[in-house]
Design the sequence.
């Protein structure tokens, strides 16, 4: 029975690694759909993810250096946070929310550096926990904003929506995994953790990849009408008019 | 599969319940957002249908109004101009030649007076249908004339400045633009308590731009859209439908200085529906 479990676990681990490269493949396949700033940022994220998976596999199985692997995680956490923050910055409509998310990179950076200094020899999952918690909140806000905004097409047709759904499931599903990742317990518990991580990560990668099948219609919201600026339509002096009133 | 094999320690339970709870919550939120948004879209479609029905009602009202206007003109001509001309004809009947010279002159003078009245009456009817300045001299003169009349009343300062109107719009377009300006100015006078109204015009490419500025209590685009979709604001609806006929755009805004409001019209030349 244990042999079967181990076999399934290994299979899941391989699938997870492969699935992490899937979003990048789909981004390249649907390159023409990357016509907005947020999707371009998402493309950079898929590159970062593919690079991280490749390097971490090399560090774990070729170089066999745990320290290098942990440092890679630290660096990737920072890059991932910055890219997701930038992605949501373009997705958000509210200016205050935009500012909050973009400026949140700096305290997170400080937190990561201080965490690195404090836990140089060991690995601490606190930055990851903070990142996950922050993005759970940020994505809930994204859903709230989408509910408020009047659009003429279903959300299920939007690529960005499915990307956010994938990320939301990933952050929520792996949150408890992160909480207990340091817990030293029986091997079965470790198997459980790995299984949850694998299932959630594969689901995320599938959603991020399949998102590109959405038709992605252009939003047609009530925006400010732009008129040519060289028209001299405001060429009057207010004081002159007010003086003439008398 | 693995969950069932693990000993039910506190951590295992907590992690399992926590993860499942988080995932259920996440899926719940996603499903709620999708269904809520679908509901909103259905509501919007229903609103659109109602809007179409309302447009139909407006169109019917407009046709009825035209019919009533025709009936009024017919009644004016029949009841006022008709009797006047009939009376004039009576004065100038065949017996006029048999009358004495003084009486003849008196009859001719009376007939002339009545014909003058008839001319005035017909002119008034004609002017109410089509402002002569607009027809003869175009939008620039008609607008300037309108603003001079407003300014002349002394209640507020009104001025108009046309930068580039060498190429006139089609008569029907000028008429529609003028009616929009009239409606906007009437609204400003009636509702905004403004101290000044200033109009500027310019041309860019194939578009004519007209901007009205006023320092009263104005509205912004969102309020215009709201009023346009509500039962109120028939005048604004007329503006919107005229803009639709012109295939143009209208935009209500407040100046960044927050001191005055602006209403901008964009009218494509020769693009009338």
Sequence:
């Amino acid at each position: 029975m244990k042999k079967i479990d181990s076999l399934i676990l290994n299979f899941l681990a391989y699938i997870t690694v492969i699935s992490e490269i899937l979003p990048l493949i789909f981004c390249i396949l649907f390159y023409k759909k990357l016509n907005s700033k947020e999707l371009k940022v998402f493309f950079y994220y898929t590159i970062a993810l593919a690079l991280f998976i490749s390097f971490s596999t090399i560090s774990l199985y070729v170089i066999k250096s745990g320290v290098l692997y942990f440092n890679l995680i630290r660096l990737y956490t920072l890059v991932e946070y910055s890219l997701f923050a930038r992605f949501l910055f373009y997705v958000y409509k509210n200016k205050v929310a935009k500012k909050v998310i973009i400026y949140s990179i700096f305290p997170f950076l400080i937190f990561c550096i201080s965490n690195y200094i404090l836990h140089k020899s060991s690995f601490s999952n606190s930055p990851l926990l903070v990142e996950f918690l922050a993005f759970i909140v940020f994505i809930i806000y994204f859903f709230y904003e989408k509910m408020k905004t009047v659009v003429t097409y279903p959300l299920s047709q939007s690529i960005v929506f499915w990307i956010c759904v994938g990320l939301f499931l990933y952050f929520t599903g792996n949150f408890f995994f992160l909480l207990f990742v340091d817990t030293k317990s029986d091997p079965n518990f470790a198997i459980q953790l790995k299984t949850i991580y694998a299932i959630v990560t594969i689901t995320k990668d599938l959603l991020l990849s399949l998102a590109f099948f959405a038709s992605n219609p252009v939003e047609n919201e009530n925006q400010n009408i732009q008129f040519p600026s060289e028209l001299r339509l405001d060429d009057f002096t207010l004081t002159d008019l007010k003086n003439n009133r008398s | 599969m693995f969950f069932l094999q693990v000993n039910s320690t506190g951590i295992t339970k907590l992690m399992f319940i926590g993860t499942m709870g988080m995932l259920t919550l996440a899926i719940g939120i996603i499903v709620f957002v999708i269904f809520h948004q679908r509901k909103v879209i259905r509501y919007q479609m229903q609103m659109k249908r109602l809007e179409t029905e309302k447009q139909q009602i407006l169109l019917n009202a407009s046709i009825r109004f035209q019919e009533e206007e025709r009936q009024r003109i017919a009644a004016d001509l029949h009841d006022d101009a008709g009797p006047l001309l009939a009376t004039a004809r009576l004065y100038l009947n065949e017996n006029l030649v048999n009358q004495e010279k003084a009486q003849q002159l008196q009859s001719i003078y009376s007939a002339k007076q009545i014909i003058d009245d008839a001319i005035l009456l017909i002119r008034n009817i004609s002017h109410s249908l089509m402002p002569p300045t607009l027809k003869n001299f175009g939008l620039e003169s008609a607008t300037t004339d309108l603003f001079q009349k407003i300014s002349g009343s002394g209640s507020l300062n009104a001025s108009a400045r046309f930068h580039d109107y060498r190429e006139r719009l089609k008569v029907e377009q000028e008429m529609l633009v003028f009616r929009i300006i009239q409606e906007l100015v009437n609204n400003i006078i009636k509702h905004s308590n403004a101290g000044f109204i200033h109009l500027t015009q310019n041309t860019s490419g194939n578009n004519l731009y007209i901007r009205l500025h006023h320092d009263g209590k104005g509205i912004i685009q969102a309020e215009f859209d709201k009023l346009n979709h509500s039962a109120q604001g028939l005048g604004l609806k007329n503006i919107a439908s005229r803009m639709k006929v012109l295939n143009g755009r209208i935009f209500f805004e407040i100046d960044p200085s927050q001191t005055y409001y602006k209403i901008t019209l964009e009218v494509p030349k020769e693009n009338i529906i």
Chain B touches chain A through 58 residues (CB under 8 Å). The two ends of chain B are 68 Å apart (CA to CA).
